[in-house]
Design brief:
Layout (H helix, E strand, L loop, with lengths): L2 E5 L2 E3 L5 E8 L6 E8 L6 E7 L5 E3 L7 E6 L4 E6 L8 E9 L14 E2 L3 E5 L2
Parallel strand pairs: 2-11
Antiparallel strand pairs: 1-3, 3-8, 4-5, 4-9, 5-6, 7-8, 9-10, 9-11
C-alpha cells in the first residue's frame, strides 16, 4: 500500500510561519517527483511547489515565491513545506503528492500526480 501522510497544519496569524511534513510509506521517493498543492473552498486545486529528485530543481507558484521552501529528508523518506510570512489568502487545505516519472522537470499540474496525502488545514487569520 502506497501512502502519503501530511501533518503540521493549524491556525496562524498573518505574518506567522508553519512547517508541513509529508511522510511516504510503501515506496521510496527516490524516483518520484514530489509536490505540494492547496485547495480553498469553492476553488480548484493549485500547485504550490514541486521538487525533482532527478535533477534537484524546484518550482514555486508566484504567489508563494520567496516565502515558501520545499525540502526533504532522504533518510526518513519525508519532505516538507516551510511557510513564512503567511497571508490570509494562503488559507486552504494543503496536500502533498508524488508522481512516478522519468522526466527531469517537475510539474505543478495536479492531474499528473497519482499519489496523494489526506490533506491538512492551514488557516491564516487574526
Amino acid at each position: 500500500q502506497l501512502q502519503l501522510v501530511e501533518s503540521g497544519g493549524g491556525l496562524v496569524q498573518p505574518g506567522g510561519s508553519l512547517r508541513l511534513s509529508c511522510s511516504a510509506s510503501g515506496f521510496t521517493l527516490d524516483y518520484y517527483q514530489i509536490g505540494w498543492f492547496r485547495q480553498a473552498p469553492g476553488k480548484e486545486r493549485e500547485g504550490v511547489s514541486c521538487f525533482s529528485r532527478r535533477d534537484g530543481r524546484t518550482l514555486y507558484a508566484e504567489s508563494v515565491k520567496g516565502r515558501f521552501t520545499i525540502s526533504r529528508d532522504n533518510a526518513k523518506n519525508t519532505f516538507f513545506l516551510e511557510m513564512m510570512s503567511l497571508k490570509p489568502e494562503d488559507t486552504a487545505v494543503y496536500y502533498c503528492a508524488a508522481r512516478l516519472t522519468l522526466s527531469s522537470t517537475c510539474s505543478m499540474e495536479p492531474q499528473l500526480y497519482a499519489y496523494w496525502g489526506q490533506g491538512t488545514q492551514v488557516t491564516v487569520s487574526s
